[in-house]
Design goal:
This protein is mainly β and 223 residues long. Helices cover 6% and strands 51% of the residues. The protein contains 1 helix and 20 strands. Strands 1, 2, 3, 5, 6, 8, 10, 12, 14, 16, 18 and 20 form a 12-stranded parallel sheet that branches. An 8-stranded parallel sheet has the order 4-7-9-11-13-15-17-19, with no helix packed on it.
Length: 223
């Protein structure tokens, strides 16, 4: 029997990124307000990567190692990031479109009030991801380990988790549509009453049953 149309889960629309010929960039170009187009940056090691309000268009970053990244208000478009290691990332009010992040380790990511469209994290280890008040459209996490994901007051549409471990999801006052959690192993959810528009599996529903009962004041007891 076909699934009712109103129950269908719409997957994120994420296209592959294909770069043409790229110019070899230099580390001294990675500065605040930079405007970079069709460049590749490889094996950059620095204590602080300060690029506030920079624009990267059709760029490739590989092997970036830094203690702190300031990407506040950056605009990243048709860009790939591979093997990035940054314990602290400031990414508030960013505009990221067609961005792929792969094989990276990011600690605290402060991405509140960001606007992400067609963003894909693959095989990444992520710490606390603060997406409070952010707008997400067509975002996916594949093969990731995430300590905490903060979706408080987040608007998310077509977001999917696949083969991902998530220790804690905070979701109060979020607005969700086609947010597919079925591929996530979630240890804890805070804000169950805000999960309208989220899709979970029968197993996840079973795991969440005690918390859902407690949320509604339902006492479950053997006779």
């Amino acid at each position: 029997m076909p699934e009712p149309r109103h129950h269908r889960v719409h997957a994120p629309k994420i296209d592959p990124i294909r770069h043409g010929q790229l110019e070899v960039g230099q580390p001294d170009q990675l500065v605040p307000n930079a405007d970079l187009h069709a460049a590749v940056f490889t094996d950059v090691a620095t204590s602080t990567l300060a690029m506030r309000a920079a624009t990267l268009d059709m760029c490739r970053l590989e092997g970036i190692s830094t203690r702190e990244t300031d990407w506040n208000a950056t605009r990243l478009r048709e860009t790939t990031v591979t093997r990035m290691d940054s314990p602290v990332m400031k990414a508030a009010r960013t505009e990221w479109r067609d961005l792929h992040v792969r094989d990276s380790r990011l600690g605290s990511v402060e991405a509140y009030e960001a606007r992400w469209s067609s963003v894909h994290f693959v095989d990444c280890k992520l710490g606390y991801i603060n997406l409070r008040g952010a707008e997400l459209l067509d975002v996916a996490f594949t093969g990731c380990i995430i300590e905490e994901l903060d979706f408080v007051q987040t608007t998310a549409r077509r977001v999917r988790f696949s083969e991902t471990r998530l220790s804690r999801l905070t979701a109060q006052q979020g607005t969700f549509e086609h947010v597919d959690l079925r591929g996530a192993d979630i240890a804890e959810i805070d804000g169950l009453d805000s999960l309208r528009g989220v899709v979970i599996s029968p197993r996840q529903l079973h795991d969440l049953a005690p918390a859902l009962a407690a949320e509604r004041g339902i006492v479950v007891r053997e006779r």
